[in-house]
Amino acid sequence: MTLPSPSGSRACLIGTAGYVHLDPLPAVRNNVQALADHLAASDGWQLPRENILPVVDPGQVAHLVEPVRRAAAEATDTLLVYYSGHGHLDDQMQFSLSLTGSRHNEPWTCVPFTWIKALLADTRATRRVVILDSCFSGKAHGLMAGAADAVRLQAATAGAVVLSSASEDGPALAPPGERYTAFTGELLDLLTSGISGGPKVITVDLAHAYVKSALAARGRPLPERTGTDTSGALGLARNPLHRPEASVQARLPRGARLVALAERLNLSMEPETLARPSVGAPDTSRSRYEMLDKKVGMGGMGTVSLAWDHFLRRTVACKTPHDGLHLETAFWAEVRAVAALNHPNIAAIYDVAEQGGKRFFVMEYVPGQPLSELTGHREVEPDDAAEIMCETLAALEHAHRAGVIHCDVKPANIMLTPEGSIKILDFGISFLVNETSAHPLWEEGKIIGTPAFLAPEMITGSVPSVAADIYAAGVSFFLFLTGEHPFPRTNLHKLFIATTEEPVRVPSSVRADVPAAYDKIVERAMAKDPAGRFPTAADMRAAIAAVLYGTPP
């Protein structure tokens, strides 16, 4: 979380405000001037003015390229390249930066972004920041891959990061009458106004999350971010509202941490199998669901595979029971459990079908990454873990109110989507509190579930309850915070003894930067006596939110 060295850093700020074929953009000149002032200020990078190269209304290729070349040649610590103006796509969908003399449908009058990329790849600077405030600027994320890889090889602790104000096929916004463009205006407001109770330095990830949230609240185009896995810690500004004596954490908007985490992990939105025709009426003579050769999960009850719904033309997930476990009551217990729920953090069920002699149920396809792959990941900060649990507990709260106990809450059954949302999966062994017919799995005295997440009373054969899910949520929170299990045992017998008899370790004993408040939440959630735990998922969620967001418990 360091700021660039003033002597070893350079900033090239380019703005094209006047055009031949388009309306002028007076806000662009204001963008460049304000950013230059900020970078020179005490709260910014404290760059000497000679290390800041402002370029307004470049009329020739050399007017734009040469300042970038100079900055790239001189920088040894951090290189910042900023562009604001109209972006251009040619008929090959290649992204270019406009000059004042650029003409519509004449790409040779613009500057291809690949030229800028080449200069960035050659610089000695160990850290590179590219900020593009233009239409179609999302195109640059793919184009920067080579340069980002080059930086990763040069400096493992630094990185290259690209922030863009728009998607690769969408517009940016310069609202009439406003002093700055939409994206740069929000960025400048954050960097100059600061974050109350926030950290000493405003990093790339913190700034991106705040700006994205602010733009979303105003219904404006959303920015995008890519970069190496360490680039989020690059400092953009000193936080003028930082108070060393303050103990509160930075209050990010709800959901912002998960959005930033998903973007840092570069999660894929859709599988390649989604390419299908989208016109004409469906062929009702064929099977509705085309099973695809891609398994996305396997549990104790069945296998989950991707399928294509020919009627509604969408990718879905189909769960088929394992051979020998296709018991009518077990199958319908899971179907009814999920069908009773309607919550944004729970994967929805669409249909029950039978094809080729096999019965299966059709669910929402959830792209992303199961959180079992993230436990202990260096990208997951304690507050990221807390936000994961807030969303997970919201889903459990909804399920419990509907009389559904999940019974297998664990990171492997929690998915982080590319959009930064959480989805709970796999209700295969869930317990329906009000179900009159007994679930075939839940026989008296039988132990069901994943051993490492079983509550002490579940080990002795008790009937599942809300308290059991709360305990499993506590174990999951411990894992997200530390990367370790609270009772690391290789022997099942020893694990069960530890679960029922040993005191719980606090997460901060494993990871020193875990707040003490999170220690207390984990301790209460994992109390040996169910009566000592949080009474409801809502209560546990409120306790976490009080620390994370500053809301009252």
Please tally the helical runs, counting DSSP H or I stretches of 4 or more residues: 15
Rg, Å, rounded: 27 Å
Please provide the count of β strands: 21
| Low-pLDDT ranges | 146-158, 245-249
InterPro entries: Caspase-like_dom_sf, Kinase-like_dom_sf, Pept_C14_caspase, Prot_kinase_dom, Protein_kinase_ATP_BS, Ser/Thr_kinase_AS
Binding site for ATP: 319
GO molecular function: ATP binding; cysteine-type endopeptidase activity; protein serine/threonine kinase activity
Keywords: ATP-binding, Kinase, Nucleotide-binding, Serine/threonine-protein kinase, Transferase
How does the SSE layout of this entry go?
Layout: E1 10-15, H1 26-40, E2 52-56, H2 61-74, E3 78-84, E4 87-89, E5 95-97, E6 111-112, H3 113-122, E7 127-133, H4 139-143, H5 145-154, E8 160-164, H6 182-193, E9 201-203, H7 204-217, E10 224-227, E11 235-238, H8 256-264, E12 289-298, E13 302-309, E14 314-321, H9 328-339, E15 349-355, E16 358-364, E17 369-370, H10 382-401, E18 404-405, E19 414-416, E20 422-424, E21 431-432, H11 456-459, H12 466-482, H13 492-501, H14 516-525, H15 537-548
Parallel strand pairs: 1-2, 1-3, 3-7, 7-8
Antiparallel strand pairs: 4-5, 5-6, 8-10, 9-11, 12-13, 13-14, 14-16, 15-16, 17-19, 18-21, 19-20
Helix pairs in contact: 1-6, 2-3, 3-5, 6-7, 7-8, 10-12, 10-15, 12-14, 14-15
